[in-house]
Structure formats: structure tokens, C-alpha cells
Design a protein that fits this description.
Strand content: 25-35%
Radius of gyration: 18 Å
Largest sheet: 5 strands, mixed
Shape: globular
Number of strands: 10
Structural class: alpha+beta
Helix content: 25-40%
Distance between the termini: 20 Å
Number of helices: 4
Order of helices and strands: HEEEEEEHEEEEHH
Length: 196
């Protein structure tokens, strides 16, 4: 890995670390909500479960591994305050909006989080995130021949730094433990199979 690139990544991580995390008394406008269900099976047994709702939706999302014409890959460095480091390295990602296809969500999120658009998208895989408590169904894409066309257009509560790495550096970041979310790891694994 280029030492200058690793220093840049470490600088972003340090810059984005949370300095204080405390419980909030804000009950209204909750993003995540647990909804209780009773489930009855054919044999008459009944169990209770709670299903997560994210912003009154199921939380289905997309993850994009964006590849530039140069071969470099865009990665996101952003606060993930409930991780050990409170910062995570991964790929552009986001929730699928109502009446939006996964591909439309991928195009929108890539543009919003990076300012790039791709000439083509390939669906690498689709999977449930945590089927025990959620119906969220995620889709990971590789976006090819990405070109910068605008600045980021982040939501009010979004903080995202982007940087460019080569594929071997991306694999090294995972090996070093910088890339550690299941969504990013699966996307990287599927992209590795596709690119090799």
C-alpha cells in the first residue's frame, strides 16, 4: 500500500472519530423502531418476534464498488459510531427509496456520496442483512468506468470522505482490518470474483 495513501486514510479516520456518545432523550423522529409480531405456524405453535423498521421502511439497501476508468476504486470513510473505532471504511451505500429499483438507488447513491456516475452497473449479489429481525434485502453492485460529474450531495446527517485506492490496496485494507463490515466484505468478495 502506498504509504502516502495509508496516511491520508488514517488522517480521515482520526478526523471523523466520535469524541462523545451518549443516550438521547429524543423519542420523536426515531429512525429505527422494533415492531412486535406474533407468528403462528401450521402445527399451531406461536412465537413472538420483533421486526426492525428503518424510517418506517424495511431497510433494504444497496452497496456499490465504484471503479474508475483508471482502475482506481472509490472508498468511503465515514462515522459508524457504534463500531470499535467509531469510523468505518467501505463503499458508497444507502437505502432504497419507495418506488425505486435497486439499480436506480445505486445510481442515486453513487452520485450523492461521491459525485461520480458510471457507464454500467453489474449486480454482484443480493442478500438478507439479518433475516432474524429484518426483511431488509440488500444488493451489491460493481459500477464501471466511473467519471466525476459533480460534488457530493450529502444528507444533513451524512459525513462521508472519499479517497481512491487500487484493487490490491483495497485487499490490503481488508487484510489489515480497516474494511470490516459484512456488507463491504461481501461486496469486495463478489467484486474480486468478477474482476479476476
Amino acid at each position: 500500500m502506498r504509504s502516502k495513501k495509508l496516511e491520508e486514510i488514517k488522517k480521515y479516520i482520526e478526523e471523523l472519530k466520535a469524541i462523545k456518545i451518549e443516550l438521547s432523550n429524543q423519542e420523536k423522529n426515531k429512525f429505527i423502531e422494533g415492531i412486535p409480531y406474533e407468528i403462528t405456524f401450521k402445527d399451531g405453535r406461536t412465537i413472538t418476534r420483533e421486526k426492525l423498521s428503518k424510517n418506517k421502511k424495511d431497510g433494504s439497501a444497496i452497496i456499490i464498488l465504484p471503479v474508475l476508468k483508471s482502475g482506481e476504486i472509490i472508498i468511503n470513510i465515514e462515522p459508524r459510531v457504534f463500531t470499535k473505532e467509531t469510523v468505518s471504511i467501505g463503499f458508497p451505500a444507502g437505502y432504497i427509496e419507495e418506488n425505486e429499483t435497486p439499480l436506480e438507488a445505486a445510481k442515486r447513491e453513487l452520485l450523492e456520496e461521491t459525485g461520480y456516475q458510471a457507464s454500467s452497473y453489474i449486480l454482484l449479489d443480493s442478500f438478507y442483512q439479518d433475516e432474524g429481525i429484518s426483511s431488509a434485502y440488500n444488493h451489491c453492485f460493481i459500477a464501471l468506468n466511473c467519471e466525476k460529474i459533480s460534488n457530493q450531495k450529502l444528507d444533513r446527517d451524512e459525513i462521508v470522505k472519499n479517497t481512491l485506492v487500487y484493487f490490491d490496496e483495497l485487499l490490503e485494507l481488508e487484510k489489515l482490518g480497516y474494511i470490516n463490515s459484512s456488507n463491504s466484505k461481501l461486496t469486495l468478495l463478489r467484486a474480486k470474483q468478477y474482476l479476476s
